[in-house]
Amino acid sequence: MKPVISIDIGSTWTKGALFALTDSSLQLSKKIAVPTTQTNLVQGFTEVLASLLNREKLTPLKQMVGKAEIYFSSSAKGGLRIAAIGLVPDLTLQLAKLAAMSAGGKVIRSFSFSLTKSDVAELEKLQPDIVLFSGGTDGGNTKYILENAHKLEDSRLTCPVVYAGNRGVAEEVVEIMKSKEVIVTENLMPEVGQVNIEPAREKIREIFLKRIVNGRGLSEIVELFGSQPKPTPLAVFELVSAIPQFHPDWSDLAAIDIGGATTDFYSNTESYLETDTVILKGIREPRVKRTVEGDLGMRVSARSLLDTGRVYIEDRLRNLGIEPEVMEKFVEKISGNTEYLPETEAEIQLDRILAETCVYYAALRHAGGWKETYTPQGKVYVQTGKDLRRVKAIVGSGGFLAAEGSAEVMRLPLEKLRSFGDEKKLLPENPAFYRDRDYLFPLLGNLVEKYPKEATTLALASLEIASDEGM
Amino acid sequence: MEDKTEREKDTIILGVIGSDCHSVGNKILELFFTAEGFKVVNLGVMVSQQEFVDAAIETNAKAILVSSLYGHGEIDCQGFRDLCIEKGLDPIILYAGGNLVVGKTPFSVVEAKFKKMGFDRVFPPDVDLKKVAELLRQDIQEKFGSDSREAKLDKSIQAKESL
User: Fold this and answer.
1) Do B60 and A141 touch (CB under 8 A)?
2) The domain at B9-161 falls in which architecture?
3) What ipTM was assigned to the predicted interfaces of this complex?
4) What Cα–Cα distance (Å) separates residue A359 from each residue in A103, A281, A352, A365, B35?
């Protein structure tokens, strides 16, 4: 038996677990969470590690070297802030956003066609961690790319720029942007409709490592324990990617993680089933996809959730006979006190409505849709985005959904979303709902690279079927 | 034409416009123009004007070849040239072909209509494709210069100068 430890440094909590690894399986032995000290990420890490190893709280890291294999992740305040630049909104820009999110980043702003002066000013003000710069197929457009390269060069941006556009001008782009750190990788869209986001994802991950390790004082951990941190969402992404490879019964799944600031939606299923009557428009999205919504969250983003989700929230309040002001007041209260946990039945209900709203809008943006069109050859469906109909299992993870025992909080908003405007949303048709009760997904995600079979097996074993009782 | 490398080939966009699902002819066109030495981006069936234009921008295409076989081509193609101009694709070559309108309208009338809409050339369903390819090469040469690689270089210099 070998002890394996996984630690996730979140923005509010540093969580850790000790696992026992035998020949073929992984068992959870112990779990703990301590508050994160933002000014010193190593402090929470040390505390968690000491506790998992049954040491004194203030044991120096050095003395714990070699006691267990250690893997860790860090959310870096909600992930890397990425600005995405593409050419056409539905093509390269769409892929740039997908690549950024699938790498565990947050898209803080996106730009298409030529950058304007005010776009550049905004970029300078936002100071993203990374600019993902794409546009043009290989051998395709060069005009916009070279133009934007000059504008970026003349800007006061200091962050690294990942260039994933037309290969034909990659060298020229590097030459133009000589005062910036430009990392060239393969084109996100070498041909129209051809999706190639992996290389860009990999570069973003490398930059994350450099930034978080050097910038946030984690180099000590890396040196002592010889393991590199992952962005937390990437750890979950890798787990969701690996599950079907080792567990064919789970070939099609999705996971939703509602946090205080963001809602993440992961899916692993074929995005388009080609038939004579369904025609795909736009890009064919990748099998594994993550989207993250910065305006949907239970606490830090409760205000923006109320704005985004007004239609859904008002409808639910009306059905339940709750006055809108009650919700307004509650949101005001929790926005001011983001650690707040609901105390009364009424507050629990309000919190649930907020969680449902996160599910509704995160699913709306993640899932594709069909529009019915009549042609002289008969009725056909025009599909845009990703088809989630074959998803058989949806896992609720993250603070709220891990604690919530009822499936209703996910089922109800998804039912309400089946049709949206004149579109039929391509949502899971008859999914089973699970909850990641011990919130192990990020922690097991850290182990996937080394122990894919064991980590995915334990991840599935630790799931609990969400009950069907109504709220 | 076969001696051109992938990068030197002229890119053209193909697709069947509107709510038209006729896919067989579209596949034949793709095979034919590929064999003729073009780099073909085939958008398939039920393609909107916006999709044609988006693909042309990303690929720096020289021509868009619009097919329509179900008789509603006239409505579907209205404003196509205007959209190209709006999107900065002014010099792009636009061809239309197929059963462009319903009924027995003489082809000369159809041709006049589509030319008025800004299409450079219009073809009836029974056109000899060899002839179309020949015309297409001529038109590309006329608008973009004889050697496509030269033309590309010229353009990138222009782009630099315009900054």
Assistant:
1) yes
2) 3-Layer(aba) Sandwich (3.40)
3) 0.82
4) 21, 25, 11, 10, 50
